[in-house]
Structure formats: structure tokens, C-alpha cells
Amino acid sequence: MSEPLTFLTAWLLGFMGSLHCMGMCGGIVGALSLNTAKNHQTLNTHLAYHLGRILTYGLLGLLAGLLGLWLAESHDLTGLILRTLSGALLVLMGVYLLGLTQALSWLERAGGTVWKRIQPLSKRVLPVQRPSQAMALGLIWGFLPCGLVYSTLSWALVSASPLESAGLMIAFGLGNLPALLSFSLFAQQLNQFRQQLWVKRVSGLLIISFGLWTSAAPWL
Asked: For residue 1, is pLDDT > 50?
């Protein structure tokens, strides 16, 4: 792969980070299943929720791309520095998933300050009875503080292209979509699967590899 900032890699990052995403979003996904089990709208409700969540990721990516574009135009070396820092953050995310450090917990705590102001909005659409409510909930829940999302955002930031950054975040959201959709149907089995040590190691090592390549590519 000659260019690390590709949609395929973003999708793989989302897919391999799905185990972390199930831990962060598994509760709300399970609640949606319980709320809609009796009205036969479970699938539509889940799809609407994830559509809202992925749209929020796309919006965050668009804003990150605008910021990256402004920073890249401010100085010639800014892009290289941002790419290196982004790769380092991805490496930390991989080590974090391996359970070897809590280095990124501060990032989630920092995001929690903003989340405290946004999360109360979800009360207006709970309990979820219709897909439109689920989509609104997904739009809100897309702002949930998550080190993996923040790491991917930093990765999208260095593309210095608003549309590409938005596309990368959408690809990331689509990557963890299969696991989160399956979680609602096979929650117990998937929870046991994600606890296996080899699964955590493979996920963490792949993300570390992405981070090392992101940092090293522009300097080679």
C-alpha cells in the first residue's frame, strides 16, 4: 500500500476495532433490540441508528478535513508533523486495545466534557419506537467519546481534504457496522468471542501496523 490514507484501510481499521466499538456502543444496541422486539421493526431501527451514527462520523471527518487543510496551508512541514502525530496516536490505540496501557483514556475523558452536554439530548428520543427516533439517537451517539474514533479522526485530519476526510470517517463507520449489527442478534456469542486473547492481539497489532506506516510513509 503506497498511501496509508485510503478508504480500504479506514474500513479495515473500523472492522478490526469493532471489538472496542461493541464495548462502547453494545449497551445502546442491545437496548434498541429490547425496545423493538415486539413491533417487528428491529432491523429497520438498527439500520436507522447506524445511519445516524455514521453521518455524524462523516460530519466530524468533514470538520477535521477543513482544519487539516487550514493547517497544511499554514506551513510546509505541518502535514508531515500531523501525519507523524496521527500515526503515533494510532500506535497508542493499538497498544490500548492490547490492554498494555491506558494512555488514551485521557482522550476519552477529555471528550467526556463535551459528551456531558450532548448526551442529555438523547432523552428526547427515548424510548425508541420508530426508525426516525433511532436515527436521531444515532446522530447524537456518534459524538460518544471513543479513543478509536478520535484516533481515526486524527488520521483523517492529515488528508487535508474535507471530502476525503468525511469519506474516511464514513468508511470507518461502515467497517464496524457488521459487528454492531450482528451484536444485536448474537450479543452473547460475540461478547465471548471478543474476550479471547488472540482476537485482542490481532486487532491491536493490526492497528499498531497502520500507525507505524502512517508515521513512517511520508519520511521514507
From this structure: no
